[in-house]
Specification:
about 170 residues; alpha+beta; Peptide Deformylase; 5-stranded antiparallel beta sheet; two-stranded antiparallel ribbon; 3 helices; about 30% strand; binds zinc ion
Length: about 170
């Protein structure tokens, strides 16, 4: 696999729906580890979804050491989930500012469920797991799973603000 790089706004890979991974084989494991390695080197990325590095595959990675709260997961290391699905969402929602490695310099306040339950195959556990997450981790999971559907944070903006942000973004990424 060639060196991973961040694909930024305007790249069609960010807008495509990602494919489910059928085999949790050595190729999948290698890809997961490459994504973890890439995220660990990025300065401010909390999470990363495969389309952001150019692959429309259902894989997300989260740097747990930047989550900073006890969520019942080891605060060290990385969470890698393959084929993640949100199976439960709290009715309670909260607005919070989010950035994205693919949208440099953009910050959007997104209203998201405060608590989620996510099911997916975990690289560390080597099996399907269910994660009950709240607050920041729940937000990051929803953000990364959005990427697998081709959804970006600017999509949550009202039309007039979105066009303004897109103009600024295009200048930044070109
Ligand atoms: Zn993002």
């Amino acid at each position: 696999m060639e060196q991973l790089r961040i694909h930024t706004y305007g790249d069609p890979v960010l807008r495509r729906e990602s494919q489910k991974i059928k085999d949790f084989d050595s190729k999948t494991r290698f890809f997961c580890r490459s994504m973890i390695d890439f995220l660990s080197k990025s300065k401010d990325g909390v999470g990363l979804a495969a389309p952001q590095v150019g692959f429309n595959q259902q894989v997300i990675v989260i740097n747990l050491s930047l989550i900073g709260e006890d969520q019942g997961l080891s605060p060290r290391g990385f969470l890698c989930l393959v084929n993640p699905r949100i199976i439960k969402k709290s009715a309670q929602k909260k607005k919070g500012a989010e950035g994205c490695l693919s949208l440099p310099g953009t910050s959007v306040k997104v209203k998201r469920a405060v608590e989620v339950e996510v099911k997916g195959w975990s690289l560390a556990n080597n099996e399907k797991i269910t994660i009950k997450a709240r607050d920041f981790l729940a937000r990051v999971l929803q953000h990364e799973i959005d990427h697998l559907k081709g959804v970006l944070i600017i999509d949550y903006l009202p039309f007039w603000r979105r066009s303004r942000e897109i103009k600024k973004l295009i200048k930044r990424v070109n």
